[in-house]
């Protein structure tokens, strides 16, 4: 899942990003509304965690722009105000969910994951394919009933492949969905991660390489 965190309190923004990355999400971070508009014009995000009171461009205007573009991106709006009227206004602007500060980080994760499931064809919370069972919420993977321990990026790659439901996923798509924008697009990190993931999942191999196209399960 690719997430953009937009928050002008840099310590909070970086803490949120670090926590989401530990949950095997690819996260970009910006600290003002103008930078947010620049990022959504370049990258495809599943979810934007958007502070409402932003410098340069207000969070409301960022949210409106996402709606105007017709993007499938879901918006989780954050605010220091817990007033019902503010929550209603934020939802009417186009936000998909609303979370007042301070918040429990576990709730933030749950809301981001719930919104992420709504950006594409609805899929069950637990993904199953080719003898593999993947639970994004618990960050658990089982093959034929045996638990498989994966690093965050390995988990992220497997989740993208599982969500594709047998379709071929290119290395570029994996890079976009599982890594942030600071990753060198010419790196071999995707190939290396897929190789490690194959080894950990065991025999017989379930990840198929489609020459010149990508990977599929």
Automatic annotation (TrEMBL):
The keyword DNA-binding applies. Residues 124-217 bind DNA. The modification 4-aspartylphosphate is found at residue 51. Gene3D superfamilies: 3.40.50.2300, 6.10.250.690, Winged helix-like DNA-binding domain superfamily/Winged helix DNA-binding domain. It comes from the Bacteria. Pfam families: Response_reg, Trans_reg_C. The keyword Cell membrane does not apply. Residues 2-116 form the Response regulatory domain. Residues 124-217 form the OmpR/PhoB-type domain. Keywords: DNA-binding, Phosphoprotein. This is Response regulator transcription factor.
């Amino acid at each position: 899942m690719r997430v953009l965190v937009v928050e002008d309190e840099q310590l909070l923004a970086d803490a949120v990003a670090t926590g989401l990355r530990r949950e095997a999400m690819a996260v970009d971070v910006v600290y003002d509304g103008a930078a947010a508009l620049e990022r959504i014009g370049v990258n495809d995000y599943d979810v934007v965690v958007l502070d409402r009171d932003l410098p340069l461009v207000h969070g409301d205007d960022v949210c409106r722009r996402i709606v105007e573009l017709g993007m499938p991106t879901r918006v989780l709006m954050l605010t220091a105000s817990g007033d019902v009227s503010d929550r209603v206004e934020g939802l009417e602007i186009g936000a998909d969910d609303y979370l007042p500060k301070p918040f429990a980080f576990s709730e933030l994760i749950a809301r981001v994951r719930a919104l992420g499931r709504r950006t594409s064809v609805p899929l069950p919370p637990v993904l199953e394919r080719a003898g593999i069972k993947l639970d994004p919420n618990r960050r658990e993977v089982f093959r034929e009933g045996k638990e498989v321990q994966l690093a965050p990026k390995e988990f992220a790659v497997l989740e993208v492949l599982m969500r594709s439901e047998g379709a071929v996923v290119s290395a570029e798509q994996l890079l976009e969905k599982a890594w942030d924008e600071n990753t060198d697009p010419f790196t071999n990190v995707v190939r290396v991660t897929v190789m490690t993931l194959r080894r950990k999942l065991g025999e017989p191999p379930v990840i198929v390489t489609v020459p010149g196209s990508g990977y599929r399960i």
